[in-house]
Model the fold of this input.
Amino acid sequence: MEIPLYVFLLGYLIYIAIFLIFSFFNLYTMAKYGFVSFGAWAVTISYIVVTLLALFVSYYYIAQVDWSKSFQVFGVVQEIY
Done:
């Protein structure tokens, strides 16, 4: 049984989309209610920088994969007579 590698890419993209939606609401809430101290600014900027860094690093590694290949789940079993 073979699974195309792009299935894993689609799963990752769905995860990233959900993460970005939650991040948007998180940043919106922090911007609306939380910017009262320098610590809140530092946490917000750190969160954005780490998120962008993680996205760039994952793009770097994902871009190197040939997504037209398949992943073989179970190997071919040869019977010995």
Summary: The mean pLDDT is 87.
